[in-house]
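fwd from M.: "can u put these together and see what the complex looks like"

so here's what she sent:
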Amino acid sequence: MTAPTYDPENIFAKILRGEIPSEKLYEDEHSYAFMDIMPMGRGHCLVIPKTPSRNILDIDAESLAHLMTTVQKLARAAKKAFGADGVLIQSYNEPASGQTVFHTHVHIIPRFEGVPLKPHSGKPEDMDVVKANAEKIRAALA
Ligand code: 5GP
């Protein structure tokens, strides 16, 4: 069986190229962070590498190291922004695991004692709520 290949027309590649909008939180030479529009919890955000890869299985080690450095930065900011009790860091790899967008990404989800997660890729959030949460994370990053 041939290995699945990277499709540059995926949604996150289009976000990186500015072809579709996103609620940006952070950007550097190697990575980009933005809000998830169907959040599993308050402040759910995503970090993606600027280099093309499908997921953790095919990303090169250097891009992964840069990605995880940004994940830590965003995880700390998201926890602080909402006074969360913890932060879930999650990655789905290939369809059997639940991956739906095939550009490497890491989910960052603030967690609160006693508050369950909503379904993965569930319901679109009100964009005013997404923007207000983004503002809190950007402030915590500053
Ligand atoms: P996956 O299932 O591949 O791990 O996660 C894809 C994530 O991207 C899901 O959490 C989903 O809510 C989110 N998502 C899907 N389409 C869009 C979009 O157009 N913009 C943003 N910001 N997030 C998206």
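replying to her w this: The mean pLDDT is 97.
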